[in-house]
Amino acid sequence: MMSSPRRPIILTRRKRPFQRSEADETQNKSYTASGARSVSASAQDGIRVVDHPTRPEALVVVVPETAGLQSVLDALTVKRKERGTPGPNKFIFLSGRCGSDDEVKALFQATSENKNRPEAGVAGNDQTLPNSGCTCKEKFDGCVQLQEPQHTEEDPSAVKGPLSERPPYSYMAMIQFAINSKKNKMMTLKEIYNWIEDHFPYFRNIAKPGWKNSIRHNLSLHDMFIRESTPDGKISYWTIKPEANRGLTLDQVYKPAVEPAASSFPQAMQVCYQQVPNESSVVVMSAPVAEVEEERVCIPFSEPCNSEQKEILRKRYERISRRKQRLVPLSNEEPVLLFDSSLVSTFQEMECDLKPLTKGAAQLPPHPASHRSRGRARRWMKGTSTA
Amino acid sequence: MMSSPRRPIILTRRKRPFQRSEADETQNKSYTASGARSVSASAQDGIRVVDHPTRPEALVVVVPETAGLQSVLDALTVKRKERGTPGPNKFIFLSGRCGSDDEVKALFQATSENKNRPEAGVAGNDQTLPNSGCTCKEKFDGCVQLQEPQHTEEDPSAVKGPLSERPPYSYMAMIQFAINSKKNKMMTLKEIYNWIEDHFPYFRNIAKPGWKNSIRHNLSLHDMFIRESTPDGKISYWTIKPEANRGLTLDQVYKPAVEPAASSFPQAMQVCYQQVPNESSVVVMSAPVAEVEEERVCIPFSEPCNSEQKEILRKRYERISRRKQRLVPLSNEEPVLLFDSSLVSTFQEMECDLKPLTKGAAQLPPHPASHRSRGRARRWMKGTSTA
DNA sequence: TGGCTGTTTATAAACAGTTAA
DNA sequence: AATTAACTGTTTATAAACAGC
Ligand SMILES: [Mg+2]
Ligand SMILES: [Mg+2]
Questions:
Q1: Is the CB of residue A168 less than 8 Å from the CB of residue A133?
Q2: Is any atom of nucleic acid chain D found less than 7 Å from the CB of residue B227?
Q3: Closest by alpha carbon to B80, among B65, B91, B96, B64?
Q4: Per DSSP, what are the bridge partners of residue A91?
Q5: What spatial distance separates the first Cα and last Cα of chain B, rounded to whole Å?
Q6: How high is the pLDDT of residue A359?
Q7: Cβ-nearest to B381 among A230, A378, A380
Q8: pLDDT (tens digit, 9 = 90+) per residue, A33-68?
Q9: Could you tell me which residues form the DNA-binding region (chains A, B) (predicted)?
């Protein structure tokens, strides 16, 4: 599977298909993505890797519906070696029926128009690659997302160009991409609309008008988006709360501090451990050392792991490492990723770079028996169980 | 109109009717409340005030559909004088067709069953008055809410007992009522469900099962609701973030520090003013002096007011005074209610107790030309308008 | 396996205030 | 200048996907 470390949760697939305008209502069935996970390793047959017509650093990868993820990765590895360093760092994945290589190139030349829009490109820092729904973005840290729309044979009239497929990003993510594309990290509502329409034509062409309502809803709802007014109060700009801004853009989801290696296990993540008093537990946390992910996870087994248990561990580690990267100061109010100490060697076997932690963990509460949560900080009461 | 001061926004009516289970789907039209605001002062005719069968401190008030708010208040005033001090402090308002007094009493005897529920009543501090949708709650501070369901003649089969009408509170409000009803201010999810079903039979009888999803959604969504686990991690309790807990309960929405007076203008609210540098503006804020509502409002006229303008002012003042009472420290990051200084005398005429403010306002930004917001803090940028 | 609990995202809508037509 | 329509912003409600127990 090779899922990537540190891929933010806000980039995971949105849950469900999207509102389409009435005109497209009839084709809804063909979109309800369900096969996105049936990724099987197969031959590279049918995969075409095409240079982007205008961007030397970008590749367009056409993936037939039958191809599995492994084939895609193999094809990319070949191309990467072929191109040498610095190789391409943008990968636009198209799946489904696509024309010839030239047609594919034409697709992108015809649609990189962000010039006749009033506000677009003002800051001169915009990303100009339009992105489509069945697109995968591969970043330098190995982040890969794939969606394979299930084309049904019975509607040949479907204008299912990749430019009209819904992108795999949530509204929150797209708004961040948009705002961070500006040098000064601020945008008016209209600019956000236009940036999204320019980079994801789905919203201009197919989505029901309600998508703008959703954008506004997201701006208001999430604390990370803050509205600031010019001193004269005439204009409102939307910004991202600096301490919450991870600088995500379409071009670069994460800037790794370490060169990504071939290992399928994340090495870039710095992991520390410390004995918890009176417990046979170990604290495992993400870098930097003085900070921890606001997450506490208890692995229920402490014996030397068998391969099945190792797999569970690895999956959990990977999932956690993809979590929202809001790092918080270490305290017992913000519990941390917590495993039994007997697993230290297991982690080390798995190439997880465990280092002893030197501060903070002394105040950690005792190892609770169970847990539930999906990324939220968990709080414990002081005394014994109260009714 | 006589709306009450300091009634929190979370107690305003929710926006739309509610999900009903399939069985009731046909009667939806008769609920879409629209006449809730047509409150006219009329005679007290038809209003019946009945003692609660089991609670000496409670009254049941049956309000015919034709009766206006003033009639209700008159009837209550009469009853209150009649009962003396300490008079009733719980008022259950029923509107629409109700039977005889005895039938009304029977209604409440039959439905105050919170005994064969596992968790209900454990803390011994529960409110036990069931509440229904067409209910008004009058509190000692004069808070009144009224809804008059629009009964349609064409469905006599409607089982529109008050016990099956949707309450006028938002989920967030009901959850607060529930949690604050416990001495220790914590409840499990199940207890919250049960409290709500016990006090608002609508949810047990009529609402679609999705209402529980909505409760969970609200618990997760709102930062004010915090989940705490027992040290052994076996039980999760939901609590209210202390600094956000206004102690709202069904019994007491607000504990006034001042005896409510007969004036229709809120006197309990302490209001201060200060000149803003280089502006003919005045800051008006709620008590305590060192804190302000996180709201800035600019009234666009500065001449001595005519009666129409006064009415606008009064309405705006009332609306603001009902806002979410999250008071924040005074700073230029948290602008304040702001009027032109020429209005000070107008406010004083209106019995608004204006006092000069002595601290903090010096950092206030200049009076902006316009504004938009509904209760949120507004931020201004430092420099001049940026593109 | 299925139900319960908890976290998120998506969508629609009510409603208030502002600006443009 | 008054009315209206469109735009902007804040909330609440509802459904659903999904994870973990
Ligand atoms: Mg926001
Ligand atoms: Mg919460």
A1: yes
A2: no
A3: B91
A4: A59
A5: 46
A6: 27
A7: A230
A8: 222 222 222 233 455 555 443 343 444 445 444 444
A9: 166-244
Residues 212-251 of chain A whose Cβ lies under 8 A from any Cβ of chain B: 226-237
State residue B145 phi and psi, 5-degree precision: -130, 135
Helix segments in chain B, DSSP class H? 69-83, 101-111, 171-180, 189-199, 201-205, 210-221, 307-321, 344-349
Q: CA–CA separation, B273 vs B285, rounded Å?
A: 7
Q: Is A374 in CB contact (< 8 Å) with chain B?
A: no
A8 CA: nearest nucleotide by C1'? C8
Cβ neighbours around A191 below 10 Å, total = 22
What's the pLDDT tens digit per position in B190-226? 999 999 999 999 999 999 999 999 999 999 999 999 9
Q: What is the pLDDT of residue B271?
A: 41
List pLDDT tens digits, range B26-36: 333 322 222 22
C-alpha separations of A290 from A61, A270, A344, A368, B183 in Å: 41, 11, 19, 23, 38
Q: Which residue in chain B has the smallest CA separation from A366?
A: B231
Task: Cis check for the bond before A86: say yes or no (omega within 30 of 0).
Answer: yes
Instruction: Report yes or no for ipTM above 0.85.
Output: no
Strand B58-63's sheet: what is its strand order? B48-51, B58-63, B90-95
User: CB of A374 under 7 A from strand D?
Assistant: yes
Residues in chain A: 387
* Alpha carbons B310 and B80: distance in angstroms, whole number: 33
**Bridge partners for B340 per DSSP:** B281
Decide if A234 and B378 are in contact by the 8 Å CB cutoff.
no
- Residue A366 vs residues A296, A328, A361, A383: alpha-carbon distances, Å: 12, 20, 11, 12
Q: Which among B234, B372, B385 is the nearest to A230, CB-wise?
A: B385
Q: Which of B336, B340, B317 is nearest to B377 (CA)?
A: B336
Say which nucleotide is closest to residue A372, CA to C1' distance. D20
- Give me the helices (H) in A62-188, please: 69-83, 101-111, 171-180
Q: Is A118 on the interface with B (CB under 8 A)?
A: no
Rounded to 5°, the CA angle B1-B4-B5 comes to: 130
Q: Which two tokens stand for residue A278?
A: 């009176």
Rounded CA–C1' distance between B38 and D11, in angstroms: 24
Of A227, A371, A381, which has the smallest distance from its Cβ to B379's Cβ? A227
